[in-house]
UniProtKB/TrEMBL annotation:
Biological source species: Desulfovibrio gilichinskyi
Swiss-Prot/TrEMBL keywords: NADP, Oxidoreductase
Listed InterPro entries: Ald_DH/histidinol_DH, Ald_DH_C, Ald_DH_N, Aldehyde_DH_dom, ALDH_GabD1-like, GABD/Sad-like
One GO molecular-function entry: succinate-semialdehyde dehydrogenase (NAD+) activity
Protein family: Belongs to the aldehyde dehydrogenase family.
Listed name of the protein: Succinate-semialdehyde dehydrogenase / glutarate-semialdehyde dehydrogenase
All residue ranges annotated as the Aldehyde dehydrogenase domain in the record: 3-450
Length: 454
């Protein structure tokens, strides 16, 4: 079956590609393995120089990369450009910091002298989603390449042109051949890649279902995996919060990228004292968002990435209503071409309803009223996910105490949850394991090797 690029705003197929044959796939993996020998022998400063050139290419090509994102997955142009620039920043970051992050660490009290080194291991397989089709790839590729590994990318099947554009960035930057390769393959070919002897690890971002399959396949071959698997983040609003600011950030968090973001706030847990004010503010702000053509600079929200995921979201919204949820705005598919879904707010649903335990990957806010901090924490933790969360209060110490009780990979106080390149990023529970970004991310895919003298 061909890999198709389908514009979610027009519902038209814009390009199709044949997946690699088994023979071609083996040839690419063998070439990547051969290139590793030269790549790992380069100095940190040589690798850093090339990463800086990749950053230059991302900046120079940001307009056209944004257009490819808009056409393939509906991201509004200005947000696509921001994404390309964020990728440039992460290349610069690891080019500047990578060497010191991987410098040998001396250890006292063992032998005459001991130190811990970090060595590259071979090829990292990255299995990536379409929602941030450049950022998700670069936040793994930049540290992996800087550490001296080679990288192969199996991108989501709906963004083949993004996948090819990413490979071209490395070519245009002057990387040696086959240090970074895009594999146009289907999900069923991932196990073949894992079978290759030079592929030592896989990093997957996507659904828990895909994570379970790929982590099992990696485990069966005793290959390392890092899993970033989405979330159902709580946004907790305490009674003394700045409601206007909380509403502003809540709207951005839930609706940016048409709600298709692993770390968007999805469950809004609001103290009784400020519940009415918060819900009324959220309703006003979410209603004002402009939904439309990703190429129109006024657009806040483009279409969802596919008809399949929009149908799944509608089915979840319908189950919310069956479970007692009340729709304040949105809640149904508009009659227009394109996979659009309107900003939607649902209240009065029990946080323990089955549907509230799922990830709602679209612009749908579930709002819960709570009467105490203990109840807020209990609702926040009443989920199998554990990626991110935020707490809103003018008393930062009180907010920090609540943050400490929330079981997630990160918590932000009075701020938007985001993946920041300086900080480790990853989840607990079915949000996955392992960490990306910061110094933790670059050490996931290396051999941590102590050397002891005497
Ligand atoms: P998937 O998790 O199915 O896809 C993510 C990546 O995994 C794609 O490259 C996909 O390839 C690959 N993949 C899927 N199944 C397998 C498999 N069995 N073996 C190997 N690779 C596999 O995401 P969907 O696009 O279907 O979205 C479904 C849900 O996942 C969303 O509603 C959302 O809840 C969650 N999601 C979370 C994301 C996040 O940022 N954490 C990003 C995207 C989705 P292919 O495209 O060829 O199937």
């Amino acid at each position: 079956m061909s890999i198709q690029s389908l514009n979610p705003a027009t519902e038209e197929v814009v390009a199709s590609f044949n997946p690699l044959s088994e023979g071609d796939l083996q040839n690419v993996l063998n070439s990547t393995a051969e290139s590793w020998t030269g790549w790992k022998s380069k100095s940190f400063s040589e690798r850093a120089g090339l990463l800086k050139k990749a950053a230059d290419q991302l900046r120079a090509q940001s307009e056209e990369l944004a257009e490819i994102m808009a056409v393939e997955m509906g991201k509004p142009i200005r947000m696509g450009k921001e994404e390309a620039l964020k990728c440039a920043a992460v290349c610069d970051y690891y080019a500047d910091e990578g060497e010191s992050m991987l410098a040998p660490i001396p250890v006292e009290g063992v032998g005459r002298k001991a130190f811990v080194t970090f060595e590259p291991l071979g090829t990292v397989l990255t299995v990536m989603p379409w929602n941030f089709p450049f950022w998700q790839v670069f936040r793994i590729a930049a540290p992996s390449l800087m550490a001296g590994n080679t990288v192969v990318l199996k991108h989501a099947s709906n963004v083949p042109q993004c996948a090819l554009a990413i490979e071209k960035i490395f070519v245009d930057a002057g990387f040696p051949a086959n240090v970074f390769r895009t594999l146009l393959i289907g999900a069923s070919q991932v196990e073949t890649v894992l079978d290759h002897k030079s592929v030592f690890a896989v990093s997957l971002t996507g659904s828990a279902a895909a994570g379970r399959k790929v982590a099992s396949a990696a485990g069966a071959r005793l290959k390392k995996s890092v899993m970033e698997l989405g979330g159902s983040d709580p946004l907790v609003v305490l009674a003394d919060a700045d409601i206007e600011e909380a509403v502003k950030v809540a709207t951005k968090s839930r609706c940016r990228n048409t709600g298709q973001t692993c770390i968007s706030a999805k469950r809004f847990i609001v103290m009784d004292e400020v519940y009415d004010e918060f819900v009324s503010g959220l309703t006003k702000r979410m209603s004002r968002l402009v939904m439309g053509d990703p190429f129109d600079p006024k657009t806040d929200m483009g279409p969802m990435s596919s008809g399949r995921l929009r149908a799944e979201l509608q089915e979840q919204v319908d189950r919310c209503v069956e479970a007692g949820g009340k729709i304040l705005i949105g809640g149904s598919i508009p009659k227009r071409t394109g996979y659009y879904y309107p900003p939607t707010i649902i209240t009065d649903i029990s946080p323990s309803a089955d549907v509230c335990k799922e990830e709602l990957f679209g612009p749908v806010a579930l709002v819960f009223r709570v009467h105490s901090v203990d109840e807020a924490v209990a609702v926040a933790n009443d989920t199998p996910f554990g990626l991110g969360g935020s707490v809103w209060s003018k008393d930062e110490d009180a907010a920090a105490k609540v943050a400490a009780r929330i079981r997630t990979g990160c918590v932000y106080i009075n701020s938007l949850v985001r993946s920041n390149m300086h900080l480790p990023f990853g989840g607990t529970g079915i949000s996955g394991y392992g960490r990306e970004l910061g110094s933790y991310g670059i050490r996931e895919f290396v051999n941590v090797k102590p050397v002891c003298i005497g």
